[in-house]
From TrEMBL:
<feature type="binding site" description="in other chain">
    <location>
        <begin position="272"/>
        <end position="273"/>
    </location>
    <ligand>
        <name>carbamoyl phosphate</name>
    </ligand>
</feature>
<feature type="binding site" description="in other chain">
    <location>
        <begin position="147"/>
        <end position="150"/>
    </location>
    <ligand>
        <name>carbamoyl phosphate</name>
    </ligand>
</feature>
<dbReference type="GO" id="GO:0004585">
    <property type="term" value="F:ornithine carbamoyltransferase activity"/>
</dbReference>
<dbReference type="InterPro" id="IPR006132">
    <property type="entry name" value="Asp/Orn_carbamoyltranf_P-bd"/>
</dbReference>
<dbReference type="GO" id="GO:0019240">
    <property type="term" value="P:citrulline biosynthetic process"/>
</dbReference>
<comment type="function">
    <text>Catalyzes the transfer of the carbamoyl group from carbamoyl phosphate to the delta-amino group of N(2)-succinyl-L-ornithine to produce N(2)-succinyl-L-citrulline. Is essential for arginine biosynthesis.</text>
</comment>
<feature type="binding site" description="in other chain">
    <location>
        <begin position="47"/>
        <end position="50"/>
    </location>
    <ligand>
        <name>carbamoyl phosphate</name>
    </ligand>
</feature>
<feature type="domain" description="Aspartate/ornithine carbamoyltransferase Asp/Orn-binding">
    <location>
        <begin position="184"/>
        <end position="310"/>
    </location>
</feature>
<dbReference type="Pfam" id="PF00185">
    <property type="entry name" value="OTCace"/>
</dbReference>
<feature type="binding site">
    <location>
        <position position="142"/>
    </location>
    <ligand>
        <name>N(2)-succinyl-L-ornithine</name>
    </ligand>
</feature>
<feature type="binding site">
    <location>
        <position position="75"/>
    </location>
    <ligand>
        <name>carbamoyl phosphate</name>
    </ligand>
</feature>
<comment type="similarity">
    <text>Belongs to the aspartate/ornithine carbamoyltransferase superfamily. SOTCase family.</text>
</comment>
<feature type="binding site" description="in other chain">
    <location>
        <position position="300"/>
    </location>
    <ligand>
        <name>carbamoyl phosphate</name>
    </ligand>
</feature>
<feature type="binding site">
    <location>
        <position position="276"/>
    </location>
    <ligand>
        <name>N(2)-succinyl-L-ornithine</name>
    </ligand>
</feature>
<feature type="binding site">
    <location>
        <position position="236"/>
    </location>
    <ligand>
        <name>N(2)-succinyl-L-ornithine</name>
    </ligand>
</feature>
<dbReference type="InterPro" id="IPR006130">
    <property type="entry name" value="Asp/Orn_carbamoylTrfase"/>
</dbReference>
<keyword id="KW-0808">Transferase</keyword>
Length: 316
C-alpha cells in the first residue's frame, strides 16, 4: 500500500485486521522497520487522539516523528489556483506540499471539510494535493469526507467486543450545537459495508449521507426501531449533506440515553470522541458498563501502526 485515504486502499482487509491485532499483542515487534525514516504529521485542525496515537504508532516502529500545526507557526496557505496573491496568504499550497515532502518519508494530513463549497470538500482538494505533489506516501488523519484510521480502529473494537458472528451495528445521528463534517459517518459506513456485519443507519430526515457512501443502504428514520436488538450503537453528529453544511435539527430526543439503549441487545456504546455529553449521549450511558469509548480510542494506536507498517514495507 502506498497511500491510505480510505478502506479501498487496503490490499486485504482481513490481513490488515490481523496485523493490527498482532501489533496490539507485540507493539515493538517491528521497532527497526522505521529506522531513519521520518513521519511528518500536518494538522490543519485540532486533535487529541489522532495526534498522539499516530505519533506513538510511528515511534513504536522506530520512526522519527515531526508534528506540524500548520495554522500555528506556518505561513497562511493559499489553496486556490490562479489567484493573484495580494491578500493575507503568503504561501501557496503548491509549493508548501512538495517542500514538506522533501523533509520526510511519510506524511499524515488532517484537513476537515470547510463547508464553503460541497464540490471542493467532496473532491478532497486538500489531501489530494498532498497525494499528487508531495512525492511521498500520504495517510489521511481525517480529511474532508473520510476518517479511515478511525473506522479501522472502530472495526478492531467491534471485532474484540462482538459476541456473535454477525452483530447488528447501528450508526445513529445525535444532536450537536455546531455543524460537524460527515467524514466519520461516511467512513464508518464505507468501512462497515466491507464486513458482513448487519449495518443500520438512523437519522432524522434531511441528514441522508452521500449516495457514494450509502450504496444500496436505506436509512431508518425511526431511531427506536433502528436500536431494536442492536449489538453496537455508534453515535455521531453530522451536518446535512443535501442542504450542505446546515444544521436541520437539534432535537435532543435523539440524544442516546437509557431509554433507547433499553431496547437493544445489551449493546455496547461507541463514539470516536471528543463527545459532547448530554447532547450526543447521556452521562449514564457513556459512564455505564457498556461504554467502550476508551477501548475504541486505544485501538487508534494499532490501526495507525498497522497502516504505517504496511506503507513502510512498501518503501523500505
Ligand atoms: N476526529 C473526531 C471528530 C472530529 C470532528 N469533531 C469536532 O470537530 C468536534 C468539535 C466540537 O464538538 O465542537 C468531527 O466531527 O469530524
Ligand atoms: N477521534 C479522533 O479523531 O479524535 P481527535 O480529533 O482528537 O484526533
Amino acid at each position: 500500500m502506498r497511500h491510505f485515504t480510505s478502506v479501498h486502499d487496503l490490499e486485504n482487509l482481513d490481513e490488515a485486521l490481523k496485523l493490527a491485532f498482532e501489533l496490539k499483542k507485540s507493539p515493538y515487534k517491528y521497532q527497526d522497520l522505521g529506522k531513519n525514516k521520518t513521519l511528518l504529521l500536518v494538522f490543519f485542525n485540532s486533535s487529541l487522539r489522532t495526534r498522539l496515537s499516530t505519533q506513538k504508532a510511528g515511534l513504536n516502529l522506530g520512526m522519527n516523528v515531526i508534528v506540524f500545526d500548520i495554522n500555528e507557526g506556518g505561513w497562511k496557505l493559499e489553496t486556490e489556483l490562479g489567484v493573484i496573491m495580494d491578500g493575507d496568504k503568503p504561501e501557496h499550497i503548491r509549493e508548501a506540499v512538495p517542500v514538506i515532502g522533501r523533509y520526510c518519508d511519510i506524511i499524515g494530513v488532517r484537513s476537515f471539510a470547510k463547508f464553503e463549497n460541497k464540490e471542493d470538500d467532496y473532491e478532497e482538494k486538500i489531501i489530494q494535493q498532498f497525494v499528487d505533489y508531495s512525492g511521498v506516501p500520504v495517510v489521511s488523519m481525517e480529511a474532508a469526507t473520510r476518517h479511515p484510521l478511525q473506522s479501522f480502529a472502530d472495526h478492531l473494537t467491534i471485532e474484540e467486543f462482538k459476541t456473535k458472528e454477525r452483530p447488528k451495528v447501528v450508526l445513529s445521528w445525535a444532536p450537536h450545537p455546531r455543524a460537524l463534517p460527515q467524514a466519520v459517518p461516511n467512513s464508518f459506513v464505507e468501512w462497515i459495508r466491507q464486513t458482513d456485519y448487519e449495518l443500520v443507519v438512523t437519522h432524522p430526515e434531511g441528514y441522508e449521507l452521500a449516495p457514494e457512501f450509502m450504496g444500496d443502504l436505506k436509512p431508518e428514520y425511526d431511531q427506536m426501531k433502528a436500536f431494536q436488538d442492536a449489538d453496537f450503537i455508534y453515535a455521531k453528529n453530522w451536518a446535512a449533506y443535501g442542504e450542505y453544511g446546515q444544521i436541520l435539527s437539534k432535537d435532543r430526543s435523539w440524544t442516546v440515553s437509557e431509554r433507547q439503549m433499553a431496547v437493544t441487545n445489551n449493546a455496547k456504546f461507541m463514539h470516536c470522541l471528543p463527545v459532547r455529553r448530554n447532547m450526543i449521549v447521556t452521562d449514564e450511558v457513556i459512564d455505564g458498563p457498556n461504554s467502550i469509548v476508551i477501548q475504541e480510542a486505544e485501538n487508534r494506536l494499532f490501526s495507525a501502526q498497522a497502516v504505517l507498517k504496511m506503507i513502510l514495507d512498501e518503501i523500505k
